[in-house]
């Protein structure tokens, strides 16, 4: 028995030692992290054989192979490999699970040369793993018509990339979106609304006309309900204030008159029956399905909605977009919105940076940028590329944007407070809570 | 004797080694981690920052985490009462010699065969749908207007909806265990009682229930573990952001460790590990209480 105990003790000691060994490589890999820029261009000599690109690239994709974006990207990559026979690209379809899978894989030293996800996410979470791209942006590529890359894409997007990580561009944006009111133009025409509303008063007037014409003016669902309150408060006092408000542990900022005014505005919308009667119980995608079926007129959402519900609407749906209206005495105007993009990043440790960037240029400019926008009914990156007809109104809006809101205009800044805000706001817009009761709940 | 020991060691080593590696080491590491601020789950130990019990304090101050604890206690209580009463009832009925026993047993067990994700989505998007949902249609057909108008997925009803949907699937699972327990009781007892003129109810309370004590205890422990680890159903009912009525500690931990789904927020893996430690303690305490309440006075039969 004693011997057994000894043996067990030895086993434990052994396993701890083993485990200790296991963690070592992790430590050594992180110690090399700060040297980012130094190696960015050293490899370029080796990757260029005479006249052509060379290399084996591994791309972890945020798409699934069967999504329109995934299908176009795969086709485009095949085309790239045909044009550059010495470059081989291996695609690993992660889908949105990449949010959880990528970083552990990178920490583990797995070979991943290119990956993509939301612009803000790639820069904030994975910026330290990415290659600085400023030098590449100044070069021209076969699809940029002799112009440098940075001049052939939407400048505002590269600006946005610099905004999240100020010392340079660490990501290549594509598939841009703007978060805005998506509406049914037929409904507006039938209700006799000539121009989309610009102010809150015009907005409520439009709701009234839509209701009189027999339409349900507004809906939302659990996935997006908080964006309404976020945008409204940001229009009144700016998104930075919204972030302060939700992070305020003393809850005193909720006493601000802007909060009560917002609550009153939405209480009124609810009381007048402008919201869909099921709005309180809507679970995504219930709200957007109502829009697709033509029963509801307006829905605050991203321009990706066109593609997302294409299966129900078909391509001929009368899509329109307008910016969240301004509110009385508010600080923000129509040029502020949450906009962003998906973005590619290149691993700072990649062996083939030239081939990798050439691939990204191939994907985000010229023919394939256009195909991607067409097939996914999304927004192209190239400044010269045509937009899908469904997003014609969004093009003007995109051009006018000056301020970028964070997601939901900052209302999600505190993940502990958000559930309380969302659930009580849902009760407010479904008529279960009065404006006063809503504010009281928020101060608890 | 000596040879025997070598054999024992040979056979035990793989099991002990894998237990230590797969269970003990992660448990210890998680406990250790809960005392540090860790930003990313794959960060090396060198990057951890000592915070002592700070993570536990953060959790205690978080109203959402407290709500999560409250939710699992209520799921445990209300769901538990419902599931145990129903599964016991079904088990007694099905073991009493009704015709088509295996058919009914399969039907009641069926929800467990279907993946929880599929079941949850069905409840969420179809049964509870306020426009064309099963509940709405059935209650309308029965003329129960008030019940047909209930918006099950609205914030004020969502918790009840969650517990009902979850318990629905669990009844079959516990029924099977109860049935096995009842079938183990020798039929002589029932025969003797029947001859003495005991009623069905009397037989249940005097024979079945006392002899099922250890099965009940096992079931309570199983139910407690599943309630404490409540995750999938909560995720399906609130797929994007946690909601006060569906949030559970596991969901909260998931958000702390991997970040929020919609926005890029600060991650705190250390606090996530602290949630894990708290849950482990809860399970151990519940297990201890159940063992004390149902003391093991062995009944041989």
Secondary structure elements and pairings:
The complex is a heterodimer of chains A (444) and B (301).
Chain A: H1 2-31, H2 44-47, E1 48-49, E2 52-53, E3 55-61, H3 68-83, E4 87-93, H4 98-107, E5 114-118, H5 119-126, H6 134-137, H7 155-164, E6 172-184, H8 185-190, H9 200-212, E7 216-219, H10 225-237, H11 239-247, H12 257-271, H13 286-292, E8 296-302, H14 305-308, H15 310-313, E9 319-322, E10 336-346, H16 353-364, H17 366-375, H18 392-400, E11 403-404, H19 418-429, H20 435-442
Parallel strand pairs in A: 3-4, 3-5, 7-8, 10-11
Antiparallel strand pairs in A: 1-2, 5-10, 6-8, 6-9, 6-10
Helix pairs in contact in A: 3-17, 10-11, 12-20, 19-20
Chain B: H1 2-33, E1 36-37, E2 49-50, H2 54-61, H3 63-94, H4 101-109, H5 116-127, H6 134-141, H7 145-148, H8 158-184, H9 187-195, H10 200-211, H11 213-228, H12 232-237, H13 249-258, H14 269-293
Antiparallel strand pairs in B: 1-2
Helix pairs in contact in B: 2-14, 3-8, 3-11, 4-8, 11-14, 13-14
């Amino acid at each position: 028995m004693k011997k057994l105990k000894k043996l067990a003790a030895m086993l434990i000691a052994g396993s701890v030692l083993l485990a200790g060994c296991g963690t070592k490589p992790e430590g050594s890999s992180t110690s090399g992290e700060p040297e980012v820029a130094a190696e960015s261009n050293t490899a370029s000599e080796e990757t260029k054989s005479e006249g052509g690109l060379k290399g084996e690239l591994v791309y972890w994709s945020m798409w699934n192979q069967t999504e329109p974006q995934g299908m176009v990207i795969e086709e485009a990559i095949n085309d790239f490999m045909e044009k550059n026979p010495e470059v081989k690209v291996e695609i690993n379809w992660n889908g949105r699970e990449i949010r959880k899978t990528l970083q552990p894989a990178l920490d583990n030293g797995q070979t991943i040369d290119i990956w993509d996800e939301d612009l803000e996410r790639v820069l904030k979470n994975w910026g330290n793993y990415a290659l600085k791209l400023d030098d590449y942006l100044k070069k021209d590529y076969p699809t940029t018509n002799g112009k440098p890359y940075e001049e052939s894409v939407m400048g505002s997007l590269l600006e946005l990339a610099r905004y999240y990580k100020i010392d340079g561009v660490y990501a290549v944006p594509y598939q841009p979106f703007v978060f805005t009111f998506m509406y049914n133009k037929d409904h507006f025409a039938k209700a006799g609304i000539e121009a989309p509303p610009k102010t809150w008063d015009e907005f409520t007037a439009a709701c009234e006309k839509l209701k009189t014409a027999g339409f349900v003016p507004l809906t939302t669902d659990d996935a997006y309900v908080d964006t309404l309150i976020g945008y409204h408060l940001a229009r009144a006092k700016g998104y930075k204030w919204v972030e302060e408000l939700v992070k305020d542990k003393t809850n005193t900022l909720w006493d601000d008159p802007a909060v009560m005014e917002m609550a009153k505005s939405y209480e009124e919308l609810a009381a007048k029956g402008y919201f869909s009667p099921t709005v309180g119980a809507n679970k995504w995608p219930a709200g957007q399905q109502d829009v697709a079926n033509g029963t509801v007129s307006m829905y605050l959402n991203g321009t990706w909605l066109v593609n997302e519900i294409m299966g129900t609407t078909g391509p001929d749906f009368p899509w329109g977009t307008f910016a969240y209206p301004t509110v009385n005495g508010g600080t923000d105007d129509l040029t502020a919105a949450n906009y962003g993009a998906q973005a590619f990043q290149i691993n700072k440790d990649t062996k083939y940076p030239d081939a990798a960037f050439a691939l990204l240029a191939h994907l985000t400019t010229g023919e394939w940028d256009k195909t991607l926008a067409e097939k996914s009914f999304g927004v192209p990156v190239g400044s010269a590329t045509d937009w899908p007809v469904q997003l014609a109104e969004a093009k003007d809006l995109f051009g006018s944007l000056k301020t970028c809101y964070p997601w939901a205009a900052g209302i999600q800044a505190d993940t502990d407070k958000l559930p309380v805000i969302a659930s009580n706001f849902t009760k407010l817009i479904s008529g279960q809570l009065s404006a006063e009761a809503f504010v009281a709940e928020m101060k608890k | 004797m000596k040879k025997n020991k070598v054999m024992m060691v040979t056979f035990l080593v793989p099991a002990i080694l894998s237990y230590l590696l797969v269970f003990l080491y992660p448990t210890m590491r998680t406990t250790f981690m809960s005392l540090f601020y860790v930003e990313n789950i794959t960060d090396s130990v060198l990057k951890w920052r000592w915070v002592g019990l700070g993570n536990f304090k953060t959790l205690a101050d978080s109203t959402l985490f407290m709500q999560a604890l409250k939710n699992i206690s209520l799921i445990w209580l209300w769901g538990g009462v419902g599931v145990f009463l129903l599964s016991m009832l079904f088990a007694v009925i099905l073991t009493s010699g009704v015709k088509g026993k295996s058919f009914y047993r399969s039907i009641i067990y069926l929800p467990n065969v279907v993946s929880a994700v599929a079941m949850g989505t069905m409840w969420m998007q179809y049964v509870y749908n306020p426009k064309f949902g099963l509940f709405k249609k059935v209650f309308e057909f029965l003329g129960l207007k008030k019940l047909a108008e209930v918006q099950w997925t609205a914030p004020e009803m969502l918790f009840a909806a969650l517990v009902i949907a979850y318990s629905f699937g669990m009844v079959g699972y516990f029924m099977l265990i109860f049935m096995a327990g009842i079938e183990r009781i020798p039929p002589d007892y029932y025969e003797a009682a029947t001859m003495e003129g005991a009623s069905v109810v009397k037989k249940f309370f005097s024979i079945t229930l006392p002899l099922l004590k250890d099965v009940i205890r096992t079931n309570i422990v199983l139910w407690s573990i599943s309630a404490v680890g409540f995750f999938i159903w909560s995720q399906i009912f609130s797929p994007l952001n946690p909601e006060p009525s569906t949030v559970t500690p596991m969901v909260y931990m998931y958000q702390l460790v991997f970040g929020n789904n919609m926005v890029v927020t600060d991650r705190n893996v250390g606090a996530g590990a602290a949630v894990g430690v708290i849950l482990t303690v809860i399970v151990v305490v519940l297990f201890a209480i159940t063992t004390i309440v149902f003391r093991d006075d062995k009944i041989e039969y």
